[in-house]
């Protein structure tokens, strides 16, 4: 694939994407106007894989590492209208020198687009059962610890505790255990809690399109799925057993979510597993494709930085605080409409500053083990929470920076 | 200055304010007061119908302004109608700013869905103020459908680029029998003044005030600009002329 970055290849890629977009538009106009559906895109059945297969990890890496200061300055000047090539410059090692300039631009662009507000959400871990062996995850099947899946009563107790904290947007999280925590279970839980929340997000195992459609119908508005790494060969090393070991099924997942008509899709790579600069490029490539294909969908990016967990390996490619700031700002300069989300994996001190760097949504008071908000099972957690402050304390911190913490920004009618 | 009249309701102020993006309710309240606005939009997706004192809907209801709920978040007519019904119930007003944007990035209005939702909402007794492209034909169709005003965009929402659609706005203003409120893209008081000078009946501003370093002073600046623009319009701006002299070389023989 030596011709990979030649202008011709890139043009062809763009054409494929655009033609899908046009077909989707044309087909859409023929549809019943009231029904929200992206089935037009389904008819085309495009897949990110067609784009992905035109790139090689090593060549992308070489390109990022050969970026110069002039490239970075050019990318900064394109802020608000930056290309994927600019994104490469912004995540390159040489851009670290410009992290303050990047932060200032990111801050300005974010304020203009989103205003002085930060969206609040909280995860609810429904289950830590998992059939996958993933070398970096606390829920890994080979971790010999007691497993737990919440039943309806337990879940409602958790919900009561979460509502008491003031939350209206919730993220449901599970491992991958299709027999006990399959789509039937998820649908039941979504219906159970729907009356109490304006926004329901899920971060669960990859599903089929028709399964996503069921969950969206039941009340799910956002679906998060992280590729973990776009390094196809090494992906197999980290995911040795279980359905998750199928790289391509996971890679195609956002396409299935998009075709199912989710309001929002969340992407991310597990930062620290492989070189985050290259993984972030592929995430950007993925996002760019999805935005043009499923153009009615909103997108968010998360920054799960690998942290120590029980019985698991340490990050292969550790990412510094400064590099994480660089990455957050690079995303914002690349795309001003993205929601950028930061969890309690990050420290109190880092999060205090991050609200001004381009982040638009934040969790607080999170527990990453099922049943911990109200039932106090002290079950196995997925990762160690680093910022243990209460939602109220985090909201006060946000206000002190001149931002309004927003608890509700969606409604069941949509 | 003449009052602005929408659906038989008079307003001294020709400035409408959006309530998003402010750093706190308190600053929003102060900016609203400084701007002199009497009509404030609020997104139904931000309003917590069920309860709670800190809720933006409850907060705004305590201020001395008329609320204009909007359907932001709706991607088609069906969702917009549901959001409108929610707004009527929660905020006890049948006024509704209709906005439908299927694309979440540029938030550009869907003309097809907007027209069909407007027809239905008028039937259901709403006072409908639709947000739309600066499309003169669509404006007339909405007027025929019975909307109380039209709200064409000056440039993409949040862009602060001013009246990029000026040529179309001129036609809309000239042809419309209902108030024309320029919405979206007004990034500076001078843009607002320009719209009023052209004869727009009012403007709606949000981002430019909410994210200013000093939203309260910026609110006041917009108030003055809107008043200045309107005064200029009412006192008839002199026509721009390429000729320096007033003589009439071709028709003087008639005198």
Write the layout of secondary structure elements.
The complex is a heterodimer of chains A (414) and B (255).
Chain A (H helix, E strand, L loop, with lengths): L6 H24 L8 H6 L3 H5 L4 H9 L3 H9 L6 H7 L8 H16 L2 E9 L7 E2 L17 H13 L4 E5 L9 H11 L5 E5 L5 H10 L3 E3 L7 H7 E3 L5 H5 L1 H8 L3 E4 L8 H18 L4 E5 L18 H14 L4 E4 L5 H7 L6 E3 L27 H10 L3 E3 L8
Parallel strand pairs in A: 1-3, 1-10, 1-11, 3-4, 4-5, 5-7, 7-8, 8-9, 9-10
Antiparallel strand pairs in A: 2-6
Helix pairs in contact in A: 5-6, 6-15, 7-15, 9-10, 10-13
Chain B lengths: L3 E3 L2 E3 L3 E4 L6 H11 L3 E5 L12 H6 L4 E5 L6 H15 L3 E4 L12 H13 L3 E6 L3 H10 L5 E2 L13 H10 L5 E3 L5 H10 L3 E4 L1 H4 L4 H20 L21
Parallel strand pairs in B: 3-4, 3-10, 4-5, 6-7, 7-8, 9-10
Antiparallel strand pairs in B: 1-2
What does this molecule look like?
The complex is a heterodimer of chains A (414) and B (255). The longest helix of chain A is centred in the N-terminal third of the chain and has 24 residues. Chain A is built from 17 helices and eleven strands. Helix content of chain A is 43%, strand content 11%. Chain A has an eight-stranded parallel beta barrel, surrounded by five helices. Chain A has one domain: TIM Barrel, CATH 3.20.20. In chain A, strand 7, helix 14 and strand 8 form a beta-alpha-beta unit. The N terminus of chain A is likely disordered. Chain A is of the alpha/beta class. Chain B has nine helices and ten strands. In chain B, strands 5-4-3-10-9 form a five-stranded parallel beta sheet. Chain B is globular. Chain B starts with a strand and ends in a 21-residue tail after the last helix. The mean pLDDT of chain B is 90.
């Amino acid at each position: 694939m030596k011709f990979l970055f030649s202008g011709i290849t890139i043009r062809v890629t763009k054409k494929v994407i655009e033609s899908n977009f046009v077909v989707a538009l044309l087909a859409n106009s023929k549809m019943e106007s009231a029904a929200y559906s992206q089935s037009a895109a389904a008819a085309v059945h495009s897949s990110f894989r067609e784009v992905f297969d035109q790139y090689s990890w090593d060549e992308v890496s070489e390109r990022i590492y050969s970026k110069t200061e002039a490239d970075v300055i050019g990318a900064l000047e394109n802020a608000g209208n930056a290309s994927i090539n600019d994104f490469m410059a912004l995540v390159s090692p040489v851009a670290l020198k410009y992290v303050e300039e990047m932060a200032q631009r990111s801050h300005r662009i974010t304020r203009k687009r989103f205003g002085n507000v930060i969206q609040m959400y909280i995860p609810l871990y429904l289950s830590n059962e998992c059939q996958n062996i993933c070398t970096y995850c606390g829920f890994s099947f080979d971790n010999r610890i007691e497993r737990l899946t919440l039943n309806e009563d337990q879940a409602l107790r958790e919900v009561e505790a979460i509502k008491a904290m003031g939350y209206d947007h919730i993220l449901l999280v599970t491992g991958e255990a299709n027999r006990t925590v399959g789509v039937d279970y998820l649908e039941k839980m979504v219906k159970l809690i729907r009356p109490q929340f304006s926004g329901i997000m899920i971060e669960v195992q990859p599903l089929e399109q028709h399964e996503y459609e069921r969950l969206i119908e039941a009340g799910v508005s956002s679906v998060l799925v992280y590729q973990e790494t776009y390094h196809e060969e090494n992906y197999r090393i980290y995911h040795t057993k279980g359905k998750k070991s199928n790289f391509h099924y996971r890679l195609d997942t956002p396409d299935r979510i998009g075709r199912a008509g989710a309001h929002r899709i969340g992407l991310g790579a597990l930062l620290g597993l492989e070189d985050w600069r290259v993984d972030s490029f592929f995430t950007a490539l993925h996002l760019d494709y999805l935005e043009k294909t499923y153009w009615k969908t909103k997108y968010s990016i998360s920054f799960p930085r690998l942290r120590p967990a029980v019985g698991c390996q340490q990050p292969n490619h550790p990412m510094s605080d400064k590099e994480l700031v660089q990455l957050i700002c690079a995303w914002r300069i690349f795309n001003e409409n993205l929601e950028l989300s930061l969890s309690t994996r990050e420290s109190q001190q880092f999060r205090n500053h991050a609200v001004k760097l381009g982040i638009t949504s934040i969790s607080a008071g999170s527990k990453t083990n099922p049943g911990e908000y109200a039932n106090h099972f002290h079950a196995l957690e997925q990762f160690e929470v680093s910022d243990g402050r209460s939602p109220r304390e985090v909201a006060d911190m946000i206000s002190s920076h001149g931002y309004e913490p927003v608890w509700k920004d969606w409604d069941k009618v949509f | 200055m003449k009052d602005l009249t929408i659906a038989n309701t008079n307003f001294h102020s020709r400035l409408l304010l959006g309530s998003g993006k402010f750093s706190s309710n308190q600053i929003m309240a102060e900016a609203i007061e400084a701007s002199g606005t009497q009509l404030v939009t609020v997104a139904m997706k931000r309003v917590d119908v069920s309860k709670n004192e800190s809720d933006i809907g409850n907060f705004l209801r305590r201020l001395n302004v008329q609320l204009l709920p909007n359907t932001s978040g709706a991607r088609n007519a069906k969702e917009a109608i549901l959001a409108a019904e929610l707004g009527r119930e929660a905020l006890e007003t049948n006024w509704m700013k209709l906005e439908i944007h299927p694309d979440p990035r540029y938030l550009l209005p869907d003309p097809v869905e907007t027209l069909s939702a407007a027809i239905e909402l008028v039937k259901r007794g709403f006072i409908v103020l639709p947000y739309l492209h600066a499309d003169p034909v669509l404006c007339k169709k909405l007027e025929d459908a019975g909307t109380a005003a039209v709200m064409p965009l000056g440039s993409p929402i949040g862009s602060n680029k001013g009246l990029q659609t000026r040529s179309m706005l001129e036609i809309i203003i000239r042809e419309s029998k209902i108030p024309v409120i320029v919405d979206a893209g007004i990034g500076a008081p001078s843009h607002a003044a320009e719209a009023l000078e052209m004869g727009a009946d009012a403007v709606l501003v949000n981002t430019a005030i909410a994210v200013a370093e000093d939203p309260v002073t910026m609110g006041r600046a917009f108030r003055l600009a809107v008043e200045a623009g309107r005064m200029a319009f009412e006192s008839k701006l002199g026509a721009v002329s390429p000729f320096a002299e007033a003589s009439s070389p071709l028709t003087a023989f008639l005198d």
